[in-house]
Automatic annotation (TrEMBL):
<protein>
    <recommendedName>
        <fullName>ClpP class periplasmic serine protease</fullName>
    </recommendedName>
</protein>
<feature type="region of interest" description="Disordered">
    <location>
        <begin position="265"/>
        <end position="298"/>
    </location>
</feature>
<dbReference type="InterPro" id="IPR002825">
    <property type="entry name" value="Pept_S49_ser-pept_pro"/>
</dbReference>
<feature type="compositionally biased region" description="Basic and acidic residues">
    <location>
        <begin position="275"/>
        <end position="288"/>
    </location>
</feature>
<dbReference type="GO" id="GO:0016020">
    <property type="term" value="C:membrane"/>
</dbReference>
<dbReference type="InterPro" id="IPR029045">
    <property type="entry name" value="ClpP/crotonase-like_dom_sf"/>
</dbReference>
<dbReference type="Pfam" id="PF01972">
    <property type="entry name" value="SDH_protease"/>
</dbReference>
């Protein structure tokens, strides 16, 4: 049996089309095994909520991901399938998302009888912070950040809409702005009430000093800072949140299996650590070279 040149071309195309499927299956297997290892070490149920920028089909169009109703359905199912005596470890990497979906997940977390921990390897902003507040312990990388949970109405912060109504005479404000201001008051009140519910959680034990709850609510819900303001580990600890610094190495390994889709050359490159220090070259012996001959190029 002989193969022609075109037969080799067909074989090449077949292998090229199957390679992405094989790589995807291999990555999914590694993700599953890593999750199982984290569960085994922590004797807990591990739930992963990671939002990256995805690509649509073969077109390569970037699509931002955030917490959706579909996410809440899956997370609620995972919590429902977890026995009451099994702790939950939630790994978060998200810019936030829908208020309804976020509140559903957060309520389910505070109702779980056993301990709930949230791990933040990089950032958990807005709705992600809301989920972190539902945990009994927030475990963060030393450089990870949380964010404010002040409500946003469309493209505008609710607190900024209220500021317009406060600073301008009522006769100079249009009806739409007044309606938005009314909605802003309601939204801020609703978020503050829910955050207070999360911080007052006492199952399985109280996690926040009651005397610090009011100051925490004021700091993260009233629009004192911009919505993308990074709340560092130090600032969150000073607020009184139950912060622990230091993630298990397996979580970093797991995040490596959820890379950001790359288009073209990578924007960051480095030699992975630990970096082997190479021994210095011995000094040449004999007559020294002239000064002009010492220059070299790579």
């Amino acid at each position: 049996m002989t193969f022609s040149f075109f037969d080799f071309i067909w074989i090449f195309f077949i292998f090229s089309s199957l390679q992405p499927l094989w790589q995807r299956r291999r990555t999914e297997t590694r993700r599953f095994n890593t999750l199982k290892e984290i569960e085994r070490r922590g004797n807990s149920r591990v739930i992963l909520l990671v939002h990256r920028q995805e690509s649509i089909s073969l077109l390569g169009i970037p699509l931002s991901r955030y917490i959706t109703i579909e996410d809440s359905e899956q997370v609620l199912r995972a919590i429902r399938l977890t026995p009451p005596d099994v702790p939950i470890d939630l790994i978060l990497h998200t810019p936030g998302g829908l208020v309804l979906a976020t509140e559903q997940i957060a309520r389910a977390l505070i109702r779980h009888p056993s301990k709930v921990r949230v791990f933040v390897p990089h950032y958990a902003m807005s709705g992600g912070t809301m989920l972190a507040l539902a945990a009994d312990e927030i475990v963060m990388d030393a450089n990870a950040v949380l964010g404010p949970v002040d409500p946003q109405l469309g493209n505008f912060p609710a607190a900024s809409i209220l500021k317009v109504v406060e600073d301008k005479p009522i006769s100079e404000i249009d009806d739409q702005t007044l309606i938005m201001a009314d909605l802003s008051r309601k939204a801020i009140s609703q978020v503050q009430r829910f955050v207070r519910t999360l911080l007052n959680d006492t199952v399985p034990q109280r996690k926040v000093d009651p005397e610090k709850i009011d100051s925490i609510i004021d700091a993260i819900t009233t629009g004192r800072v911009t919505h993308d303001y990074p709340i560092t580990v130090e600032e969150a600890t000073e607020m009184g949140l139950p912060i622990t610094v230091g993630l298990p190495l397996q979580i970093y390994d797991l995040m490596e299996l959820y890379p950001q889709p790359q288009g073209g050359r990578p924007s960051v490159q480095y030699i992975p650590m630990p970096y082997d220090r190479r021994p210095a070259l011995p000094e040449p012996k004999g007559r020294p070279l002239p000064e002009g001959a010492r220059t070299s190029s790579l």
